[in-house]
Amino acid sequence: MSETSYYSRRSFLLGAAAVMVATKSAQAQTAPQMHVFKDPNCGCCMAWIEILEQDGFRITTEARTSGGLVQEKIKRGIPRNMASCHTADIEGYVVEGHVPAQDIRKLLAERPEGIGLAVPGMPFGSPGMGPEHQREAYEVHLILRDGSTRVFTRYDAAA
Fold it and tell me: What pLDDT score was predicted for residue 139?
């Protein structure tokens, strides 16, 4: 191998590595940042968080007792019938429960008037709650400022 080929290949590899590092850094800076309030021992909350992280969300967590979680929900205006196991803040919105990543991204892109999204209860097959191929039907609700809700997305039961 000639000295010129060696340096050309080396320069190319160093340049490619620099581009990859810069791309990763830019993605990390533009990835949505979410702060999640959760029970420290809840496995399904951690499963949901891992799914969102794999989808590119940057997540921080804060442990709360059950009473502390209720207070976070009240503070954010989440109606009792929309409650679930964890509560998150993202870009001025609240996300309650096992909301799929694509719905959170749609919320952030469309910026509808409202408090945020909720998947009440813990429907089987929602993100973090078991295999999607066994999913039961559920709805993602947009919580409006007056406490009412409307369906944001419907997920049919798996066939």
Answer: 98
Backbone phi, psi, residue 118, to 5°: -145, 140
Please work out, in degrees rounded to the nearest 5, the angle formed at the alpha carbon of residue 117 by the alpha carbons of 131 and 27.
Answer: 75
pTM of this prediction exceeds 0.70: yes
**By C-alpha distance, which of 25, 21, 152, 157 is closest to 97?**
152
| CA–CA dist 34, 54 (Å, integer) | 13
Mean pLDDT of 74-78: 96
| Alpha carbons 56 and 33: distance in angstroms, whole number | 9
Domain boundaries, the chain: 1-30, 32-155
**Angular region, 147: left φ>0, alpha ψ -120 to 50, beta rest:** left
Cα separation, 14 vs 128, whole angstroms? 39
Residues near 20 by beta carbon (within 8 Å), at least 6 away in sequence: none
CATH number of 32-155: 3.40.30
Is pLDDT above 50 for 26? Answer: no
